[in-house]
Amino acid sequence: MTDRTTAPALPQPFVGTFFTDPYPVYARLREAAPVHRIALPDGSPVWLVTREADVRAGITDPRLSVNKDRSGVGYKGFSLPPALDANLLNIDPEDHLRLRRLVSKGFTPRRVEDLRGRVQAAADRLADELAVREGPVDVVAAFANPLPLVVIGDLLGVPEPDRRPFSERVATMLAPEHPGQIVEAVDHIHRFLVDLVAARRADPGDDLLSALIAARDDGDRLSEDELVSLAFLILMAGSENAQHLISGGLLTLLSHPGQLAEVRADPALLPAAVEELLRYAHPNQMAIRRFPTEPVEFGGVRIPVGDTVLLCLASAHRDPARYPDPDRFDVHRADKAHLALGQGIHYCLGAPLARMEIQIALETLLRRFPRLELTVPADRLRWRTSFRSHALRELPVTVRANPEKPEKD
């Protein structure tokens, strides 16, 4: 067994080609040791857990708290105001289960299924706009980014003019060009959501936020900070992750022409393709950070109480000990038990909506544009410079619509 003084100390891995292709770095880390003591870009020391069995166990280990107050050395991370921090990603079981019960009253399967027609209509409208574009078009800006904003904006009752600015501020918060941008973005997001909750309380509608405001459980209800924090989490996760999964999923399919041909020939394969995309190309590199409430051990490495632990989802999803030939994208892969949507009490409440959005988005693009192709080699694409998410900045393609939607003369 090793402790904090003898665990492998590796150089900062988030350099070089990591931002464009992090998986070789993770492969080297997995092979060298199950756990590594590294430094994040802000200098924070963390324990990085890389192997699938350990990551899977860690996600549901009750000794690993998500509450930042459990940090023994003062977790740096994002400095969020309380009105954004009281969400399901930062709360341990007792309060977490209470909030989850209340949220589930508004986030019902029926409410999600009722969105299907609106998701398809939004995807068709964006595809119509793509069909008349001339020359290369950036699918990230023209399709992948706006579609989830329509969906999550409708779900929460966000006024349409406010949706894109909110998404841009979230993107800035997660991948700033300089540290000062984080504070400014968080301040804008905070004020916008406080005003949004106040507006929905004064004038309730048929939307999730209004349902959350009205939700009660044995007389209990969400506090103001909890409402604002949940709105923040739902808007951020519901837009950010879906945007990157659509663009990253399309890139993956375009980069695997054999698999793409199979999905085009048999659209019934699309749900299986989406599950494989969630393993192979999920943008989240890490699960939410954890803090041991008692010493924990992974692969013979002892991690002390209060240290920061990062469970590396991206590495776990490429671990050959769990997934045969893990770097191969395979829509027929039998093992679909990925970790992309969480586990246990941290399983994503919005998982059905995320799956539906990605399926509709990709099916619409593949059906409407049978000759869709990249305009630059895949190795020249631009990616975010963020260790948190492996996400495209842009995805330039040429589109030529099928006969049912003729191109503009």
Automatic annotation (TrEMBL):
Record bears the keyword Metal-binding: yes
Iron among keywords: yes
One family name in Pfam for this protein: p450
Keywords annotated in UniProt: Heme, Iron, Metal-binding, Monooxygenase, Oxidoreductase
Signal peptide (from-to): none
Gene Ontology terms, MF aspect: heme binding; iron ion binding; monooxygenase activity; oxidoreductase activity, acting on paired donors, with incorporation or reduction of molecular oxygen
Family named by the database record: Belongs to the cytochrome P450 family.
Designated name of the protein: Cytochrome P450
The species this protein was found in: Streptomyces netropsis
Phylogenetic classification of the source organism: Bacteria, Bacillati, Actinomycetota, Actinomycetes, Kitasatosporales
